[in-house]
Amino acid sequence: MLSVKKPYIFTDGKLLFDYTPLYCNTTQALLQSELFAEVLHRFIEKLAAKESPVYEYFNNNIPMSKKHDMVSYIVNFFRLLNSHTSSEILRINEEYKEILIDKEIVLDFIEELYNFWRRFERFMYIVVPKRSRYAKASLHHVQFINMHMEFKNLVLEAYRHIRENLLGQNPRVYRQLPAGSNMGMILEQIEWNCPKMFLSVKDVPFIRITIVEPPLILYPQQNKRKGMFMECSHLTEEMFMVVPDQWFCFPAKVGPLLAFIYFREDYISQGLSLGNLFQIADYEEIEGKLPDIILFFGLTNLPFDNNAMFYEDKDSGLLVGLLKHTEEIDYFGYFKKMTLTLHNIANLKTGKLPVHGAMVNLKVKNAPDVGIVIIGDSGAGKSETLEALRMLADEEIRDMKIIFDDMGSLSITDKGTIVAYGTEIGAFVRLDDLQPGYAYEEIDRSIFMNPNKKNARLIMPVTSYHHIVKGYKVDIVLYANNYEQIADEEPLIEFFNSAEEALTVFKSGARLAKGTTDENGIVHTYFANPFGAPQRKAIHEELSTKYFETMFRCGIKVGQIRTRLGIAGFEQQGPEEASKELLKIIKNL
After folding, report:
1. Is residue 182 domain-resident?
2. CA neighbor of 266 nearest in space, from 334, 179, 199
3. What is the pLDDT of residues 467-497, one digit of tens each?
């Protein structure tokens, strides 16, 4: 069993709690709980620190004998208000007479406490016994979902009862706010083929089921990723010395690969958000298995200057990602991109060509099915153009399947044609460049990251796992050019005449940086893909030449599309006009 010192942890605006020892089935039990007392204590401390008039009112009107334990006094006061009106309380116990003189101030206290609670990013979990296979049974899934909903309803019910009994009237508008936990998970220890190097994490539990209350807004410490992931030459057991009850493991299916993504509790919001991006592996895919990829987010014993490193075990082929315990990596881009970097390195070893881009399979009326790949680095406009295509041509498109939104891989079939595979079931989309109408249909299932800052993002599911591993034929490959303004006579889309001409543009990887990383201005990234391609440049050079020659040989149209996403004033117009031109080309194939 996973052991924890406390059933709850507060860290950096987050609350992580084990609901099993804190379980409540009535509002009275909720108000008597250890967690409620702790939240109330922290709230009172905050009011006192800023010398709030609300705090002064309570401090001045609480009986002298109760001042030493204001938390207990207010808990008992709330328990009474939960089941009695303020008038009834005055008849029952005159101890609260002074507090109830000014109900408006008491109401302010209640509202501020409720908002204080809701401002925490709240994560619920339950731990199940080792080898229980608890999370496999749908009955237990339902039980966990019900627990999650019951907790939310208890918080809402307690808040409403206390408020209504204080004022003696019901509100005219009821807002069904997410008042319980924002996210939840079932944890289970599973035996896996753990190398000796990583024995310290052997008892870290796996996330088996997650629950999200969307749309969810999270506020990580950072809103951009810095630098490129570098390779280290060796590992030591000391690097992986962790306290298991401070860690969790998200078992992700990254395309066909299995990745164990370990993260320290500080990064719970990033780690659980992976559920909107990657498929969670099944019990049978974990038990007794050695994953293709292992990542650690939050290690404290790394001897490197860089915050993010990786290592390849030449004997087993295992790829290991190592990220320091620092606020600088508290950004979802690190979780996503480090995982995909290792995925790409693994694919290069098997002869697949990883591509940083987006792909859709389109069924257009009165036209053949077409597979479109748009390659480009972050902020180049690849996803925005494809989404604009769908929104503009909705009546003409019979079906549109997203195969990958950010990272995929190409493979040459036995027949000499090229098919593409995806990695993620979700998308990590930049909000700044999307009009409201451009958002995916799944926006109501989304997790928002720092919507108040530049490079605001949302994570949302966009496709199904069976689509990303099926393999779809490729008909058009385009480079996303976000920086070139064009004259009236110049085309938005132009096609290359040879593999050599195409490779010159793709290898250059030019784009106008949009603030999604720490880069500025026109920058160049080898093959628009800093995630595996430059780290294994020699093999990538060989494979990219082979694949582009195959594209021209089998009739795939290869060119560039000018999205103009990086040019001021064209953030929406650029992808929209580019998508119109792309639709014309598709209909003429």
Report:
1. no
2. 334
3. 999 999 999 999 999 888 877 677 899 999 9
